[in-house]
């Protein structure tokens, strides 16, 4: 990275490079090759050496990830999904030398239709080391998580508010940040994309792009393009976000075009292979329409689904409604409200058509399922709080900033 790049832009450029490396690794494994995640680590080290010196928030991120590294190296994965799905796929990629190793549908209960961003990174770590074990490949979650933390550091101006965001992140996501599940990673990426849409969203469709906006749109592209490769729900999230961008088509038409290309690329490199190998997605198994119709007419099923949603989102929904009304007027509400509403309804629909026992499915997955929407709400509220504290000082001392410049400036 060129030292002439502004510190604020460097956060998003570094995040974009690291995400691009993860995606490139997936492409490489589809060809029987790989890209070592240590390349992403090198990018992060260069960033810290050049741009993050003296920044308390950046040093906090570094300390957190050093702690994450120690915790990860403390033992192998043990949680069911991590051991039997994600890192089992990683092991198969490593030993078979192909992204598509799992598509022979060996052990169908390991959900072989699931995409492989993190498993491919884990396989690449093992390939770099020259052998597989049950500990070192776990480090693959770090180069995938790190870019999301950089995006939030870029968007939240005040160090105190960023520390509050980080504390809430550790409390809300808990062990899912490190235990090999993909839910927390998907939640952070969705929240980062929602905030990037928020800061660039404008009702003035004829306005020229403000300073720094192109870098933000570049980061937004890479994050949304990555979502489908993290987890199946990521495809839904990317489609919803692309649809939200359509509400301001004239401003986002170039970005929308590239996002549509990225969706086509995802289908070409992954979904088409899943279809050609006749690997089934359990949720959309035979009879899913009939199951959905039966449950939607059954009040007991509806009450279980709605009750569980309210139980896990009891704090997020009131907080969202509150800040829609009392938050700073400069922070658009349309992106987060649309995303949370559409994604939540889609998840409820999934529960309606699930072939599994509904009560068991809700109990075992609802917290993880709605982690995406809850964390999006939390991050948007923290960003709104940051703006509410930053804007008065900015307006008192500076000309009216473009592109939320006060919030986009790293102290």
List the helices and strands in order: HHHHHHHHHHHHHHHHH
What is the domain total for the residues?
A: 1
How would a crystallographer describe the biggest sheet?
none
Number of DSSP strand runs: 0
Q: Can you tell me the overall shape?
A: globular
Distinct helical segment count: 17
How would you describe what is shown here?
With 411 residues, the chain is mainly α. The chain has one domain. Helices cover 70% and strands 0% of the residues. It is built from 17 helices and no strands. It is globular, with a radius of gyration of 21 Å.
Task: Please provide a brief summary of the model.
The chain has 17 helices and no strands. The chain is mainly alpha-helical and 411 residues long.
Which short descriptors sum up this protein?
411 residues; globular
Write the layout of secondary structure elements.
Layout: H1 7-30, H2 38-50, H3 56-72, H4 80-96, H5 117-129, H6 141-155, H7 159-173, H8 183-200, H9 213-230, H10 232-246, H11 249-276, H12 288-296, H13 299-312, H14 316-326, H15 334-353, H16 358-369, H17 371-397
Helix pairs in contact: 1-2, 1-5, 1-6, 1-9, 3-6, 4-5, 6-8, 7-17, 8-9, 8-10, 8-15, 8-17, 9-10, 9-11, 10-11, 10-15, 12-15, 13-15, 13-16, 14-17, 15-17
């Amino acid at each position: 990275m060129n030292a002439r790049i502004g510190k604020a832009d460097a956060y998003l450029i570094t995040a974009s490079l690291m995400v691009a490396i993860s995606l490139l690794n997936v492409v490489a494994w589809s060809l029987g090759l790989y890209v070592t995640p240590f390349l992403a680590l090198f990018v992060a080290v260069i960033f810290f050496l050049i741009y993050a010196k003296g920044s308390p928030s950046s040093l906090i991120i570094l300390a957190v990830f050093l702690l994450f590294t120690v915790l990860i190296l403390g033992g192998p994965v043990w949680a069911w999904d991590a051991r039997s799905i994600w890192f089992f796929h990683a092991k198969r990629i490593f030993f078979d030398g192909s992204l598509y190793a799992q598509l022979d549908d060996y052990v169908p209960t390991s959900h072989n239709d699931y995409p492989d961003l993190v498993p491919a990174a884990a396989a690449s770590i093992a390939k770099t080391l020259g052998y597989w074990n049950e500990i070192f490949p776990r480090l693959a979650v770090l180069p995938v998580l790190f870019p999301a933390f950089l995006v939030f550091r870029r968007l939240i101006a005040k160090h105190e508010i960023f520390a509050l965001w980080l504390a809430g992140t550790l409390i809300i996501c808990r062990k899912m940040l490190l235990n090999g599940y993909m839910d927390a990673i998907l939640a952070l990426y969705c929240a980062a994309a929602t905030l990037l849409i928020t800061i660039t969203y404008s009702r003035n469709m004829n306005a020229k792009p403000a300073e720094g906006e192109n870098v933000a749109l570049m980061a937004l592209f890479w994050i949304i393009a990555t979502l489908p490769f993290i987890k199946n729900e990521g495809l839904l999230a990317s489609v919803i976000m692309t649809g939200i961008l359509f509400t301001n088509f004239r401003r986002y038409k170039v970005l929308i075009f590239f996002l549509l290309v990225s969706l086509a690329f995802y289908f070409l490199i992954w979904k088409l292979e899943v279809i050609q190998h006749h690997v089934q997605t359990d949720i959309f198994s035979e009879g899913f329409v009939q199951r959905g119709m039966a449950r939607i007419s059954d009040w007991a099923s509806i009450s279980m689904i709605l009750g569980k949603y309210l139980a896990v989102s009891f704090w997020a929904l009131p907080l969202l409604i509150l800040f829609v009304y009392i938050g700073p007027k400069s922070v658009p509400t349309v992106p987060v409200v649309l995303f949370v509403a559409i994604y939540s309804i889609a998840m409820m629909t999934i529960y309606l058509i699930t072939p599994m026992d509904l009560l068991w499915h809700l109990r075992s997955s609802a917290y993880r399922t709605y982690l995406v929407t809850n964390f999006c709400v939390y991050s948007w509220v923290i960003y709104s709080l940051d703006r509410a504290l930053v804007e008065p000082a900015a307006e008192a001392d500076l000309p009216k900033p473009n592109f939320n410049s006060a919030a986009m400036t790293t102290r």
